[in-house]
Write a structure and sequence with these properties.
Blueprint lengths: L6 H26 L10 H55 L6 H24 L1 E2 L2 E2 L9 E7 L4 E4 L7 E3 L5 E5 L2 E5 L1 E4 L19 E7 L2 E9 L5 E8 L1 E3 L4 E6 L2 E6 L11 E5 L8 E3 L5 E7 L2 E15 L11 E7 L4 E6 L6 E4 L8 E6 L2 E8 L6 E3 L1 E4 L4 E4 L5 E8 L3 E4 L7 E4 L6 H4 L2 E2 L3 E5 L5 E5 L6 E2 L6 E5 L5 H54 L3 H27 L4 H5 L1
Antiparallel strand pairs: 1-2, 3-6, 3-27, 4-26, 5-8, 6-7, 8-14, 9-10, 9-15, 10-11, 12-13, 13-14, 16-18, 17-18, 17-24, 18-23, 19-20, 19-25, 20-21, 22-23, 28-29, 30-34, 31-32, 33-34
Helix pairs in contact: 1-6, 2-3, 2-5
C-alpha cells in the first residue's frame, strides 16, 4: 500500500473533469440551440455552413430585389394605364372632330382638349418616378452605343503638305444610335505635327490614343491623350469646341485635330455623356523624292563663270521632317567663300537649313543631309577654287500612305441605359429591363415642325398637319415646346384617328412587355424562395443541435459527474486503512 500517490483518486478526478466538460458543452448547445458554437466544435461543418449562409442571405435579398422590381414595373404600368386612357379619349375626340356636323368653333374647343391631353402625356412621361428615378422619359431605353468602324483603305498624304493635309486615322465613320436618331461624323486628324512635335501620322499602336467628346449642356469639350512612335505625347484637357449659330455647327480645330458635326446630328446626345473614339493606327513615315533636278549648273569662281559645272543627284525629302516644307515649291543653295558656309534655302519662306566649313573644288563632292533634306552635289571641270554656287530646283513631290489597322467594328463606348434587377445570389444573375420613351413626341402624336409623318393601315407613309403654334407643354410648366395633332378639319381629324391608333398600339406593346417581365419576376421569386428554403434546411442540419439527443447527452454527463464525485470521496478514504496497520 502507498500513501504518497492516490492513483484511484487521480483517475476518478480526471474522469470527473471529462464528465463536467461534456455536461457544460451539452448545456451550451441546449442554451444556444446550435450544434456548432465555435470552429472547434466542427471546423469543416462551420466552413460549409457559413458558405450556405451567404447563399441563403443572397437568395433572400434577391427575392426582395425581385419584389422591388415588380413594384417599379407596376408603377410604370400604372402610368401607362393612364396614358392608354388619355389616348382613348383623344381618339374619341378625333372621331368627334371628323364629323362635319361640327363647325370651326366646335373643333377649336376639341383642339383645346387635345392640346391639354397631349401635355398630360408629357407630364406623365417626365415625372413618373420610382425611388426618384424617372421611368418613362427615355432614360431607361435600350443601350446607347458608339461604334467606331476602323477602315483599311490607305490614305495618301502629300509629304510637302503634310502639315495641312487632313486624313482620317482609323475611326471613320463614328456614329451612335439612340432610339430614332442617328448621327455620323468623321474625325479628321491633320497629318503633320502638333506644336510640341507630336506626329499624328505615326501614332504608336501599342499605346492608348483616345479622343473623348463630352456634352456639357449646350456646349461640347474634347479631351485627347496620345503617344506617337517617337514617344512624344500630346494631352488636351477639356478644350472647348466652337459653335457657329448661323449654321448650327460645332467644330474643333487645334493641335492638328479637326472635326465638326451639326446641332441636329447630336439632338439625342444626353448631357454629361461622353463619346470616346479609340485611334489605334499604325502610321508610316516615308521619303518623298525631289524630281526635275537640273544638271550641269554653272560653277562661278571669283565672280567669273568658269568651265566647272555641277551635277546634283539623290535629292530626297524625309517625310518625318515634312513640316519644314510647308508650302514650298522649290529650294536653292549657296556656298559662301567668306564664311565657308553652305546654305540650302526654301523659296516659299521655309526654314533655312545649312552646313558649315566646306570648301568646294573641281572634282570634289558635297554630301548634304540635314533636317530631312539630303542630296549629293558634285563639281566637275578643270578649274578649281572657291566661289559661289547657285541653283534653283523645282520640287515634284511624291506621296506616302498612312496605313490603318485591320478592319474591325468595335464599340468605342457603350452606355447601358436599361434598369437591371439583381435576381440571384451570385454574379451575372440579373435581369435587364428597358422602358421606352412614352412621351407625346416619342409616341408620334406631337412634334416641333409643321407636319408629322405616320404609317397608315396599308403600310403607306402619310403626313398630318400639326397646330400652328406650340400649344403642348412638357407637363411641368406652362411653356409650349411642341405642337399637337391638328383636328381643325375633316382630313386632319381622320388622319389623327390612325395616328392615335398607332400610339395606342405602342403603349399596348410597352405594357405587354412590362407585364411579361412582371410575370417572369413572380416566377423568379417563387424559385428563389424555394431555393432558400431547401438550402436553409441543409444548413440547419449542419449547424443546429438536436435538442432531444443533446438532452440525453447532458443527462448522461450529469449522472456520470455525480457518480465520479461519489467515487472520488471513496478513493480519498482508502489511504486511511494504513492506520490500522500501525495500531
Amino acid at each position: 500500500m502507498i500513501i504518497n500517490n492516490n492513483i484511484p483518486a487521480l483517475n476518478t478526478h480526471r474522469q470527473m473533469g471529462i464528465n463536467q466538460g461534456n455536461m457544460q458543452s451539452a448545456m451550451e448547445k441546449l442554451s444556444s440551440g446550435l450544434r456548432i458554437n465555435r470552429a472547434g466544435d466542427d471546423a469543416a461543418g462551420l466552413a460549409i455552413s457559413e458558405k450556405m449562409r451567404a447563399q441563403i442571405n443572397g437568395l433572400d435579398q434577391a427575392s426582395r430585389n425581385a419584389q422591388d422590381g415588380i413594384s417599379m414595373i407596376q408603377t410604370a404600368e400604372g402610368a401607362l394605364d393612364e396614358t392608354h386612357s388619355i389616348l382613348q379619349r383623344m381618339r374619341e375626340l378625333a372621331t368627334q372632330a371628323a364629323n362635319d356636323t361640327n363647325v370651326d368653333v366646335d373643333r377649336a374647343e376639341i383642339q383645346k382638349e387635345m392640346n391639354q391631353l397631349t401635355s398630360e402625356i408629357n407630364r406623365i412621361g417626365n415625372t413618373t418616378e420610382f425611388n426618384t428615378r424617372t421611368l418613362m422619359d427615355g432614360s431607361l431605353a435600350s443601350d446607347f452605343e458608339v461604334t467606331a468602324a476602323v477602315t483599311t483603305d490607305p490614305t495618301t498624304v502629300d509629304v510637302t503638305k503634310a502639315i495641312s493635309q487632313s486624313f482620317t486615322v482609323g475611326a471613320e465613320p463614328v456614329s451612335w444610335d439612340s432610339g430614332a436618331a442617328q448621327a455620323d461624323f468623321g474625325i479628321s486628324i491633320a497629318g503633320g505635327e502638333a506644336s510640341n512635335g507630336f506626329d499624328f501620322a505615326d501614332l504608336d499602336a501599342a499605346e492608348t490614343n483616345q479622343l473623348s467628346i463630352t456634352r456639357d449642356g449646350s456646349s461640347f469639350t474634347i479631351d485627347f491623350q496620345g503617344t506617337d512612335a517617337n514617344g512624344e505625347t500630346l494631352t488636351i484637357n477639356a478644350d472647348q469646341m466652337a459653335f457657329d449659330a448661323s449654321t448650327g455647327t460645332y467644330s474643333y480645330d487645334n493641335q492638328g485635330i479637326s472635326f465638326s458635326f451639326t446641332e441636329a446630328d447630336v439632338a439625342d446626345w444626353e448631357d454629361a455623356e461622353a463619346v470616346t473614339i479609340n485611334l489605334n493606327t499604325i502610321g508610316t513615315d516615308a521619303t518623298g523624292t525631289v524630281n526635275s533636278v537640273p544638271e550641269n549648273v554653272a560653277l562661278t569662281i571669283g565672280g567669273t563663270t568658269g568651265d566647272a559645272a555641277a551635277t546634283v543627284s539623290d535629292v530626297t525629302v524625309d517625310g518625318t521632317s515634312s513640316a519644314i516644307l510647308d508650302g514650298a515649291d522649290e529650294f536653292s543653295f549657296d556656298w559662301d567663300e567668306d564664311t565657308s558656309t553652305f546654305t540650302a534655302t526654301l523659296s516659299a519662306g521655309g526654314t533655312a537649313v545649312s552646313t558649315t566649313a566646306f570648301s568646294l573644288a573641281a572634282g570634289e563632292t558635297l554630301n548634304y543631309n540635314e533636317n530631312g533634306i539630303s542630296f549629293t552635289f558634285e563639281a566637275t571641270g578643270d578649274t578649281a577654287g572657291d566661289g559661289t554656287i547657285a541653283g534653283t530646283f523645282a520640287l515634284e513631290t511624291a506621296t506616302t500612305q498612312v496605313t490603318t489597322a485591320p478592319t474591325t467594328t468595335t464599340p468605342a463606348v457603350t452606355e447601358d441605359r436599361s434598369v437591371t434587377f439583381q435576381i440571384g445570389a451570385n454574379q451575372n444573375q440579373s435581369l435587364s429591363l428597358s422602358i421606352s420613351d412614352m412621351r407625346s413626341q416619342a409616341l408620334g402624336i406631337s412634334g416641333t415642325g409643321n407636319t408629322l409623318s405616320f404609317v397608315n393601315r396599308n403600310g403607306d407613309t402619310e403626313t398630318i398637319n400639326l397646330t400652328s403654334t406650340d400649344d403642348v407643354t412638357n407637363g411641368t410648366n406652362n411653356t409650349g415646346v411642341e405642337r399637337a395633332l391638328d383636328v381643325s378639319s375633316f382630313e386632319n381629324a381622320t388622319k389623327a384617328i390612325t395616328v392615335l391608333n398607332n400610339a395606342i398600339e405602342s403603349v399596348s406593346a410597352e405594357r405587354s412587355k412590362l407585364g411579361a417581365t412582371q410575370n417572369r419576376l413572380e416566377h423568379t421569386i417563387a424559385n428563389l424562395d424555394n431555393s432558400s428554403e431547401n438550402l436553409q434546411a441543409a444548413e440547419s442540419r449542419i449547424r443546429d443541435v438536436d435538442m432531444a439527443a443533446e438532452m440525453m447527452e447532458m443527462t448522461r454527463a450529469n449522472i456520470l459527474s455525480q457518480a465520479s464525485q461519489s467515487m472520488l470521496a471513496q478513493a480519498n478514504q482508502q489511504p486511511q486503512s494504513v492506520l490500522q496497520l500501525l495500531g
